[in-house]
Amino acid sequence: MSSNDVLGRTEGGDLRLAGLTKRYGSFTAVDDLDLTVPQGSFFALLGASGCGKTTTLRMVSGLEEPTAGRIFLGDQDVTDRKPYRRPVNTVFQNYALFPHLDIYENVAFGLRRRGVKDVKKPVTDMLDLVELGHLAKRKPGQLSGGQQQRIALARALINQPQVLLLDEPLGALDLKLRRQMQIELKRIQLEVGLTFVHVTHDQEEAMTMADTIAVMNAGRIEQMGSPAELYENPSTTFVANFLGQSNLLTGTVEGVDGDVVTVTAHGQRLTLDAARCPVRSGAVILGVRPEKVHLARTGAEIPAGHNRLTGGTVVDTSFIGVSTQYLVTLATGEEVSVFEQNTGREIQRPGTEVVVHWDPSQGFGLEGGQDIEAGAADIEEDAA
Amino acid sequence: MTAVTAPPAAPTTAARPPEARRRSPLAWAREHLLLAVTVLIFVFMLLPNVIIFWMSFNQPQGKFDYVWHRFSLAAWQNPCANGEMCHSIGLSLRIGVVATIVATVLGTMIAFAMVRYRFKARSGINALLFLPMAAPEVVMGATLAALFFNTIGPGGLGFWTITIAHVMFCVSYVVVTVKSRLAGMDPTLERAAQDLYATPTQTFRYVTLPLVAPGIAAAALLAFALSIDDYIVTVFTAGNLETFPMYIWGSVQRAYPAQIDVIGSLMLIVTMAIIALSQVLGRARSARR
Ligand SMILES: Nc1ncnc2c1ncn2[C@@H]1O[C@H](COP(=O)(O)OP(=O)(O)OP(=O)(O)O)[C@@H](O)[C@H]1O
Ligand SMILES: [Mg+2]
């Protein structure tokens, strides 16, 4: 296809952002962003509302001019290219389908603008891919939200862009349809093999779909990695709280002995794997995920070598069927959440005196001095 | 939910008729009040048109045909018996078309500038645009007359001065109409077009213009209607020329030929035919999809 050359499409084109910055007056919406999205990967940009996700996408698509920094597609610097000269397409947050054109013409729009003569076959194929061929003659206003979303996807995909940008495309859908569309999107991405940059503020969505997640906070990337990496080894309290839930305890490093870091927190001695703790002395934050923590009645036997926090009282018990979620208050006032799988064990009623314990290899350490509540509010917002 | 509430609802419906019959006078009035008011409003608005249509079949007799003499097709067979009248209609139509085109193009461009760009004089221009709508027409007409007298002189008054005056007040209405349409347009649509390889020109041609077109069309119709029946400003700027409204006003004092009613009826018929045609075309287009 000669039109590809016009758009400067290249083989092996990773998307690379270097020092990308956007300021509105004195407000910095995107702050010195550096990241590389490998070609063909499903990349998720995860962050709370207003953290600069849409702004980042708009700079990549060319609809917004960066204040500083460069954007590369493969070995080409596209920073100064107009949006209609970039091999990048967007699925907009509100879909932005053309209301005066029918579905067929909406999907054909990009091909026609590039002067492709025979659009019938690609458009029909694309409508079949999103399973909406029977709606070709309808206007966007006559479609449901989920159907509009699929047309927006088809309209972008048909151009086979080097990078497809998806700006919270599933945000307006209800939970069930959202799960369905997540699977669908992932299937289509594997099928067409394009680079997808998917923006979302739903951590579960990011984890299920993406190969790589970048967690964004206030215009910066907090951490980047595979879903498992981010979940098991968050590097900041924001990531630990935003991606799933964490119990975070402030403490002090007592010493390092080989592979083991010893920490005092709330007057109790706890240990950590040195490999999962970047701190070697001074203030530290010890984290452990609720599902890694176990409960035992005070006085009951606890596996040898486990970290333990004694003097806890169950204050809340919610039985969810597959698991039971406990909230335990320690003598020092700290709260610890515990998720126990339903393995038929006894359920502890509120008021029970308990010991909280976990395998030391399941904990992780974070730099001390951070706000242990950072990112936590967003979880509640999401759950609501 | 419907399935659950439906069975108990059935006996209530069965029991209702006698009760409804008892309340019937009040209920009847309540149900038909809207109809009565609607009919009255229609009569109020349409009666003058009906009378003009009826009087257009009056037998022309003498100078004043205010009074019904007898039925005749004479006026319809010879609507241009009075050459001056048809000449004035031609003039009004020409002015209307030119003023509409100029005002619509100019007004649309101003509307785009006002909605899309933030510039220093923006609020000032907004106020200026409002002026022709707010200022009394007599004042505007007198001012324009003074302006033209002092620049091109009394001899220069005519087609172009009338047209310039009409463009001036029509532009304000065009700007307001197009602006509201533009402001209601989702700006992401144009971004989406650019994202889909449309150059700025193509974006305007394939996305912006089709979406704003209904607003522009409405503005043009409004401008034409304003121009074709304007009297006050026109009188001040017309010089020796006589537009149709001026002709009617003048002739009412000298004579009232039945042909005026014919022209009035014709205008009504043409307007209604255009509206009907656009409705039929619109329905045909939506049926094809
Ligand atoms: N044109 C603008 N002028 C000034 N500030 C802006 C502008 N556009 C965006 N911002 C600000 O930049 C920040 C980032 O906006 P952005 O749209 O990128 O957020 P987002 O991460 O996409 O949020 P959401 O999840 O709600 O869509 C916000 O605080 C917003 O108020
Ligand atoms: Mg956004």
Automatic annotation (TrEMBL), chain A:
It is an enzyme of class 7 (translocase). Residues 15-243 form the ABC transporter domain. Gene3D superfamilies: 2.40.50.100, P-loop containing nucleotide triphosphate hydrolases. It catalyses: ATP + H2O + polyamine-[polyamine-binding protein]Side 1 = ADP + phosphate + polyamineSide 2 + [polyamine-binding protein]Side 1. GO terms for molecular function: ATP binding. Transmembrane segments: none annotated. Keywords: ATP-binding, Cell membrane, Membrane, Nucleotide-binding, Translocase, Transport. The keyword Coiled coil does not apply. Its EC number is 7.6.2.11. InterPro entries: AAA+_ATPase (IPR003593), ABC_SmlMolc_Importer (IPR050093), ABC_transporter-like_ATP-bd (IPR003439), ABC_transporter-like_CS (IPR017871), Mo/tungstate-bd_C_term_dom (IPR008995), P-loop_NTPase (IPR027417), PotA-like (IPR005893), Transp-assoc_OB_typ2 (IPR013611). Pfam families: ABC_tran (PF00005), TOBE_2 (PF08402). The keyword Manganese does not apply. The complex is composed of two ATP-binding proteins (PotA), two transmembrane proteins (PotB and PotC) and a solute-binding protein (PotD). NCBIfam families: potA (TIGR01187). Part of the ABC transporter complex PotABCD involved in spermidine/putrescine import. Responsible for energy coupling to the transport system. Belongs to the ABC transporter superfamily. Spermidine/putrescine importer (TC 3.A.1.11.1) family. This is Spermidine/putrescine import ATP-binding protein PotA. The gene is potA.
Automatic annotation (TrEMBL), chain B:
Keywords: Cell membrane, Membrane, Transmembrane, Transmembrane helix, Transport. Residues 89-281 form the ABC transmembrane type-1 domain. The keyword Cell membrane applies. The chain crosses the membrane at residues 33-57, 95-115, 127-149, 155-176, 206-228, 262-282. InterPro entries: Bact_Polyamine_Transport (IPR051789), MetI-like (IPR000515), MetI-like_sf (IPR035906). It is a multi-pass membrane protein. It comes from the Bacteria. It holds the Pfam family BPD_transp_1. It is found in: Cell membrane. PANTHER family: PUTRESCINE TRANSPORT SYSTEM PERMEASE PROTEIN POTI. Belongs to the binding-protein-dependent transport system permease family. CysTW subfamily. This is ABC transporter permease. It comes from Streptantibioticus parmotrematis.
